[in-house]
Amino acid sequence: MLSVDEARERILSPLRPLPPEMVSLSEAWGRVAAAPLAARLANPPADVSAMDGYAVRAADTIPGDRLRLVGEAPAGHPFEGAMAAGETVRIFTGSVMPRGADCVLIQENATREDDAVLVGQPVAAGKHIRREGQDFAVGDEIVQAGRRLGARDVGVAAAGNHAWVAVHRRPRIALLATGDELALPGEPVPSGGITNSNTPMLAALIRASGAEPVMLPLVRDDLEAIAAAADGLRGVDMLVTLGGASVGDYDLVQAGLAKRGLEIDFWKIAMRPGKPLMHGRIGRGPEAVPMLGLPGNPVSALVCGLLFLLPAIARLSGEQLAEPERERAVLGAPLGENDHRADHLRASLARDAHGGFVVTPFPRQDSGMLRRLAASEALILRPPHAPAAQAGEPVDIIRLDRLGL
Amino acid sequence: MLSVDEARERILSPLRPLPPEMVSLSEAWGRVAAAPLAARLANPPADVSAMDGYAVRAADTIPGDRLRLVGEAPAGHPFEGAMAAGETVRIFTGSVMPRGADCVLIQENATREDDAVLVGQPVAAGKHIRREGQDFAVGDEIVQAGRRLGARDVGVAAAGNHAWVAVHRRPRIALLATGDELALPGEPVPSGGITNSNTPMLAALIRASGAEPVMLPLVRDDLEAIAAAADGLRGVDMLVTLGGASVGDYDLVQAGLAKRGLEIDFWKIAMRPGKPLMHGRIGRGPEAVPMLGLPGNPVSALVCGLLFLLPAIARLSGEQLAEPERERAVLGAPLGENDHRADHLRASLARDAHGGFVVTPFPRQDSGMLRRLAASEALILRPPHAPAAQAGEPVDIIRLDRLGL
Q: What is the distance between the alpha carbons of residues A11 and A305, in angstroms, rounded to a whole number?
């Protein structure tokens, strides 16, 4: 059986970022930049005032002296002429500095008297001026390729005078749930049946990671029906199957997809919950579709989705992220020794007196407990063969309440 | 001047969660539940096997004994009859337990011989069975009102057999930027002009918080034009103005909107960056539109958006969240004493040897540095009159890299 890290590496290594498309700035939030963005406009675009007041020459700011007010330059309306010695121009935050001025006398230190301004305090040359390009100059790289664009990046792109951004296309991830026991939520559930919670749950996980889910219709436990589902993968960047990933008599996914050229890379991982995780690809060459087979158990499917599908989507999206962020917490309860499988314990989070995290595993870790998983604020990561740990010892966690999961 | 907390309280107190609407489960991710969801189907819906193996009676599991194989019950196809003593039924993970059986002999401990099964190990009654309703029973509350639905909640709702969810309507937030100096990004920027980065940036912040931005056209520094913009607020849940919030000669927002009934609650906060923050409402009674006036400086606008607009959107969305989550970090560099204004220092984050955060403020905190803000991983929260602090001392931070900002 593979380790979690080996499995992730084998899933990620064949994946490449999707090609770019252009989106307008109002649609760019949450997308991943496909190319660096260079500023077309400096910020600020000219020397501007950082305060409301009067543009002056430092040499003229002798307290008690009167300066002749020769004009005003509100933001957007620069003073056209040049200021001579003994002159001043009324300006505001963001106003372009008039030619001839070298600093700003803030209004709190000035007294207006008709067409004159009484200097209250001396001002040093350069004071209260934001220099052209102080934040960035024309041509500076203002957004890096591979960055998922937050609101601030959108603001920086706008300040650099971009209305369009090249981003990686959103990965389209097809979800295929198989099983005679499955009914669509809200529809009548026959005796012995359950609703298909995996497809809507994983579709939400895919949305949370910025990709686009394609929810394929439910497929019965039938080889030909499973094979036929693989014919609907045109334009899909990855196929995720749900259920049927082990080798029980009725676990037919592998055999069904083999009829359409599935080549299996591996299908067992030393982890809990989750062991039967399938990886492979359907078809060959540039048209091949990577395939990830998640367990049918919803708790296992979600944990495997977090550990393997999210990084795969990040890679396809052009992001650098390789795995969900780990944080540190101290245990709120003791843990026994772990066996050979990496464990992912559902747990609650609290804060200690110093603001640090205290993580407490739920006493029962049954992988049938979906509601318990939904109530978990974190997963505790227990490496294979981890020794027993006392309350108060540090452990690695992944916060679930922060990922849209 | 108000404190940050007082200002937030006064902004939030008049706001109420928006009315509900129904969305299908595939659109429910990221929305806020408007009512609790009660399970319509238990999970599991019946006693089911937790393993692949054979349904047996515990009393029959004497090693070496042969049990008569009377049928099989794959998931979705329950065994119709009742199992008698000495009989067994082939079952799989998720199969409904046949009547008469009380535990599961896992396949690793059984040997199949034609129509008989050889018992390898004794099994205790109840072993490897997931009981009906073990995760939740019919009628149990499986999603709480006020919860922002993550992927796991969508999964739980599906398992409880819901195809529709009542959620609070998305807040619609109108953005109104004013200023003669503003040009739309990508359009020609006249001399003395800048691009309007605030509207796209705040629109992205609004999207990041699950609300819907309405980007109003740019408005010049003209009282009538500003007043006319207030006529376009039908169906809008909050108006956010950008710029023109102080009382300089050209800061006309307050006077312009007063022509349409703006009543001001306050307009100064003891904080940095940000001081001129306006709050009020336009109109009276149930049709009144809450109004938040953010500073025109983009760094100030973003920080005030984080501290005041995000909580306002959370309140309108029906969420419990009152303010962005604070975390603890230790300082990577010393800080001087703070003055009477709450400060929000742009900073980088690193991890120490124990996995804790080290936060280091950028040496220059000029509020004109938008690119610097975009590169910041955290804001350090410095209360008014905070004493000087040495490297290694703990401080509160807000992580910016986690909020879609």
A: 12
